[in-house]
């Protein structure tokens, strides 16, 4: 079997999908994307496939991963690793279809039958966020994540801190103590303010505080960790296992949130989860993207003991109205019940893409970029 062709599809609102084809008629799908850098990633995917993959055996997943990563003198980073991730998704999809088995079975077999998923809550005033959380709780979700601040200056007022605490308090009150609640600082908070916020959030029994500092200040995570009993998390903006090493050695995090679309795909996410397990660190993969990325991520989750929960932004509770799940031939592929997604049993990634719908959507111009925020003095704020 050889790889013979590939196609890339940009679809709304901000996704890039990859289809790999073989001479055996078996195709595989991947989701290579850096949100806001779609065209850059598209070029990187084309360079990698045309330079290294066409005409080769798709079943050599580990060899191809090493070749695509290691053959370039300059390697790593979010663009190249996200391009590699989408290719890796598609290679594993082909491999699973060839052997007529889910990817997780090829990685050692499933360790659980269903996976807890968490729902992301949009920002807003406390009452609105609380009402959204309450509705999602009634739909069955039992875990949530909330961005606690928007523009947040390096030194903020007591009132700004109070507003952040009010949001968290309102959501906790809405969902009660039987549900999990994680808080994302999103890299918007400086170390001087992080110390105050983590102290003020202690009473709300959070499952984690995510990205308390920007990735470039990861050397400060152990200090943040010493300030609180709340588990510290990070990882959605990391692009390989090598960026986690020092955090594990320093005992600076208790939870990591790697993204299967940014860390080099299924192959690398599996290695990161194994590394984390040796340090007793829990894994809750980041995944605010489409159903291909979600399918790739849960393949690792179902065969990894320390992957305890999975992010999703698919609207699993109502597949009939989900724009994301509409990309699948069967929007009910992922069965949602009591806050869990059931283990998919189909071969490869376990999904069938509605290719005609994808091709129709690909006629739409897709040019999403994240907003640029400013502080009141005109300086650029973290988004």
Averaged pLDDT, please? 96
The biggest beta sheet, please?
A: 10 strands, mixed
How many structural domains can be distinguished in the coordinates?
Answer: 2
Strand content: 15-25%
Structure, explained:
This protein has helices at residues 38-53, 61-70, 77-99, 103-106, 126-139, 158-175, 191-200, 221-226, 245-249, 266-278, 291-301, 355-361; strands at residues 3-11, 15-22, 28-30, 114-121, 143-147, 180-184, 208-210, 232-234, 255-256, 282-283, 310-312, 336-337, 340-342, 373-374, 380-381. The chain folds into 2 domains: 3-104, 2-Layer Sandwich (Enolase-like, domain 1); 108-349, TIM Barrel. It starts with a strand and ends with a strand. Strands 4, 5, 6, 7, 8, 9, 10, 11, 12 and 13 form a 10-stranded mixed β-sheet that branches. Strands 1-2-3 form a 3-stranded antiparallel β-sheet, sandwiched between helices. Strands 14-15 form a two-stranded antiparallel ribbon. β14 (373-374) and β15 (380-381) form a beta hairpin. α2 packs antiparallel against α3. The protein is globular, with a radius of gyration of 20 Å. The chain has 383 residues and is of the alpha/beta class.
């Amino acid at each position: 079997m050889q790889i013979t062709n590939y196609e890339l599809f940009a679809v709304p609102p901000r996704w890039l999908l990859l289809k790999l084809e073989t001479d055996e008629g078996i195709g595989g799908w991947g989701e290579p994307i850096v949100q806001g850098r779609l065209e850059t990633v598209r070029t990187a995917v084309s360079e990698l496939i045309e330079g290294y993959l066409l005409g080769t055996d798709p079943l050599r997943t580990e060899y191809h991963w090493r070749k695509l990563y290691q053959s370039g003198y300059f390697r790593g980073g979010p663009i190249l690793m996200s391009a590699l991730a989408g290719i890796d998704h598609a290679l594993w999809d082909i491999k699973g279809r060839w052997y007529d088995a889910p990817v997780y079975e090829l990685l050692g077999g499933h360790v659980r039958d269903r996976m807890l998923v968490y729902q992301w809550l949009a920002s807003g005033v406390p009452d609105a966020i609380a009402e959204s959380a309450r509705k999602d709780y009634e739909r069955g979700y039992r875990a949530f994540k909330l961005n606690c601040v928007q523009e947040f200056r390096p030194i903020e007022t007591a009132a700004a801190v109070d507003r952040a605490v009010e949001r968290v308090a309102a959501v906790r009150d809405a969902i009660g103590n039987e549900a999990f609640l994680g808080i994302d600082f999103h890299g918007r908070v400086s170390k001087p303010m992080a110390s105050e916020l983590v102290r003020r959030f202690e009473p709300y029994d959070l499952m984690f505080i995510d990205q308390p500092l920007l990735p470039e200040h990861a050397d400060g995570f152990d200090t943040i960790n010493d300030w609180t009993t709340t588990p510290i998390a990070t990882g959605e903006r990391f692009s390989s296992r090598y960026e986690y090493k020092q955090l594990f050695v320093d005992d600076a995090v208790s939870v990591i949130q790697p993204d299967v679309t940014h860390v080099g795909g299924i192959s690398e996410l599996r290695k990161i989860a194994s590394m984390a397990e040796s340090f007793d660190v829990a894994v809750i993969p980041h995944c605010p993207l489409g159903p291909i990325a979600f399918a790739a991520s849960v393949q690792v989750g179902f065969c990894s003991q320390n992957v305890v929960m999975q992010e999703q932004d698919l609207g699993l509770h109502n597949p009939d109205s989900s724009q994301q799940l509409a990309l699948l031939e069967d929007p009910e592929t992922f069965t949602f019940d009591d806050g869990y997604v059931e283990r998919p049993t189909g071969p490869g990634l376990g999904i069938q893409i509605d290719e005609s719908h994808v091709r129709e959507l690909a006629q739409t111009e897709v040019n999403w970029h994240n907003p640029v925020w400013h502080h009141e003095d005109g300086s650029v704020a973290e988004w």
